[in-house]
Each structure stands twice: as structure tokens, then as C-alpha cells.
Design goal:
- It is a single chain.
- Helix 1 crosses helix 3.
- With 330 residues, the protein is an alpha/beta fold.
- It has a seven-stranded parallel sheet, sandwiched between helices.
- It starts with 9 loop residues before the first helix and ends with a helix.
- Helix content is 54%, strand content 10%.
- The longest helix is centred in the last third of the chain and has 28 residues.
- The structure holds guanosine-5'-diphosphate and magnesium ion.
Length: 330
């Protein structure tokens, strides 16, 4: 669309976002996602300009094995919340995604109700890149959504792997979804992911599955019992619900609100967000400092030789670092 094409005017973008204009929000996210150096400067100026208007949303991360019902759950929760006059933004972290690929389109169809809702804003994951890069863009997008007046931001993990931790690191509440009929293994999820859970919710507790869902929930309750809790102020509940019928969806959300109340009262929420901000700063700085390793042609050409010499014992690691650092400094 020609009218939405660059150049980007930071102050106009900022005022459009403050006014809640969706097309401006979309355009600003395009700026955020751009890899161009001049765009990166403008994007930083934009998030800085909007900083005072950010931070107000309830940030919820949602993870679980493919097919567990993340998208359908977001549709059910989002429809309920927009029905209460809340504004809901839905973002995703998927380092493997391609804009034209299937996962996002399939997701949109699972969010049929929310997709057509004027109070909902759904943005697919930034196109593929490093997990750190994709997560950073999603974080900045979240800030823009908050400035645009979205009260609730839900971030879905689409890819499997490290994206769960990245999403837990950018949200206030980390929701881990499970299927009925568990078995003793935690359905392929890494123990580290379950340790981050603020709640485990067993989906598809409908029809013949209700009993199996309850049994799975009991197992997860026992499993959680032996893990060290993430927070001194919160014991992660284990619930069953159905995104399909809506049974248990209001109760599920009530836990999110209870968690918020407890962590706000104890100042843990502010502390958690503060730590996340600092972590984010270091992650971005690391990306920035390492960028020449990928973009500097001379350096890129020299690295395999340096590595081979280190491996063969002809070059001391310390000398190699001196060489690389010298090239980086240029
Ligand atoms: N019976 C039942 N099926 C569900 C429920 N939630 C999702 N599904 C189905 O499970 C499949 C995967 O759902 P989806 O939301 O795309 O999962 P995602 O990959 O985790 O995002 C779809 O075919 C849904 O229709 C539920 O509560 N009950
Ligand atoms: Mg999905």
C-alpha cells in the first residue's frame, strides 16, 4: 500500500498511536521490524517518545505444544475480554516464521472471532531471524500496543524451543497449556518451561475428555509440588477448561487477575518488569556488539581461519581474541 510506505515521521507516528489509530500502529510496527540502520534509530526514538504511555497492559505469555489450543484459547479469552470493553492485542514469537508461511494463516483461522473484532489487534510474529532479534521486535511491538491503549497483550509462542523462555521474559504471567491424558512426562515440555509457569491449564476438557483432563491436572499438581516456586507470593494453580465450549475460561482469567493483585501488592510485579527491562537492554547490546561478526566482510572472511588455527593449537585463544577485537575496533 503506497500510503503506508516509508518515510516514517516519528512524531506523527507517535500521535497516531496515542490516538489508537490501527493503521498507524501497523505502520509503526513495520518500522520496528525493519533492519535498516536509519529505521532502527527512528524506532528507538519512537519507543522512547511513547515510553510514558507504556507498561499499563496485563502481559500474558501463552505456551504449549503445537495443537494444544493456544490460538483457540486466545480467541476465547480475547472474545470474552473485548466483550467486557477491554482492548486486546495478540502477538507471537516464532523465529521460524515466514510472512507467507502457513502457521500464521492457520492461526488467523483459529482466531476467527477475534480477527474481526474492532477492539482486537492481531499481529503475526516478525519474520524469521535469530530468536533474540524476533523477541526484541515483539517486545517493542508490545510497548507500541500499550501506548495505543490495549489493556491486555497476549503473546503466543509458535515455534518450539527457546521461544518459551523469551516469552516468559517479556510477560507478567506465563500460562502453560497442556492436553488431557498426560502420562508422567510433561508432554515434551522442558522442565525449565514448567518451572516458569504461573499457571498450568489443561485444555480440551469437554465431551469424553473431561475425566482425562481432571486426571492430568491432578498429575501436574503433584509434579508442580516438587518444583521450587517461581514466586514467594504465588502458588501456580492447575486448572481444566475448554477453549471450544468456553467452560472454565472466566475462571482461568480470574487467576490471571488474582496473580496480578498479589504481585502488585508485594511489589514483585514492578521488580519482575524492572529485571526484564535490564535483561532486554543487555540482550540488545549484545546483539549490537556482535553485529559486526555477521556483517563485517573482512571479519567474516577471517573468522574460519582464526577458528581453525585455534582448533589446531597454532594460535592461542587469547591471541585470537586480540586479533578479532582489533578487527572489530576498526
Ligand atoms: N475438543 C476441543 N478441541 C480444541 C479445543 N481447543 C482447541 N481445539 C482444537 O485443537 C486444534 C488445535 O488448536 P489451535 O488453537 O490451533 O492450537 P495451537 O497450535 O496450540 O495454536 C484445533 O483443531 C482446535 O479446533 C478445545 O477446548 N476442545
Ligand atoms: Mg496457534
Amino acid at each position: 500500500m503506497a500510503s503506508l510506505a516509508p518515510p516514517f515521521d516519528v512524531s506523527r507516528l507517535a500521535s497516531g498511536i496515542r490516538a489508537g489509530e490501527r493503521n498507524v500502529l501497523s505502520r509503526a510496527i513495520t518500522l520496528i521490524e525493519s533492519k535498516r540502520a536509519d529505521h532502527r534509530c527512528k524506532a528507538a526514538a519512537l519507543t522512547q517518545a511513547l515510553l510514558a504511555e507504556t507498561g499499563k497492559a496485563v502481559r500474558v505469555g501463552i505456551t504449549g505444544a503445537p495443537g494444544v489450543g493456544k490460538s483457540m484459547t486466545i480467541d476465547a479469552l480475547g472474545s470474552m475480554l473485548t466483550g467486557e470493553d477491554r482492548k486486546v492485542a495478540v502477538l507471537a514469537v516464532d523465529p521460524s516464521s515466514r510472512r507467507t508461511g502457513g502457521s500464521i494463516l492457520a492461526d488467523k483461522t483459529r482466531m476467527g472471532r477475534l480477527g474481526n473484532n474492532a477492539n482486537a489487534f492481531i499481529r503475526p510474529s516478525p519474520a524469521s531471524g535469530t530468536l533474540g532479534g524476533v523477541a526484541a521486535k515483539t517486545r517493542e511491538t508490545m510497548l507500541l500496543c500499550e501506548a495505543a491503549g490495549y489493556d491486555i497483550v497476549m503473546v503466543e509462542t509458535v515455534g518450539v524451543g527457546q521461544s518459551e523462555i523469551a516469552v516468559a521474559d517479556m510477560t507478567d504471567f506465563f500460562l502453560v497449556l497442556m492436553l488431557p491424558g498426560a502420562g508422567d512426562e510433561l508432554q515434551g515440555l522442558k522442565k525449565g518451561v514448567v518451572e516458569l509457569a504461573d499457571m498450568i491449564a489443561v485444555n480440551k476438557a469437554d465431551g469424553d475428555n473431561v475425566v482425562r483432563a481432571k486426571a492430568a491436572a491432578a498429575e501436574y499438581r503433584a509434579a508442580l509440588h516438587i518444583l521450587a516456586p517461581r514466586s514467594p507470593n504465588w502458588t501456580p494453580p492447575v486448572v481444566t477448561y475448554s477453549a471450544l465450549t468456553g467452560d472454565g475460561v472466566p475462571a482461568l482469567w480470574q487467576h490471571v487477575l488474582d496473580h496480578r493483585e498479589k504481585l502488585t501488592a508485594s511489589s514483585e510485579l514492578a521488580a519482575r518488569r524492572g529485571e526484564q527491562q535490564v535483561k532486554w537492554m543487555w540482550a540488545m547490546l549484545e546483539d549490537r556488539l556482535f553485529a559486526p561478526l555477521h556483517s563485517d566482510r573482512a571479519l567474516k572472511a577471517a573468522l574460519p581461519r582464526i577458528e581453525a588455527e585455534v582448533a589446531a593449537g597454532r594460535l592461542a585463544p587469547a591471541s585470537a581474541v586480540e586479533q578479532i577485537a582489533g578487527m572489530l575496533g576498526k
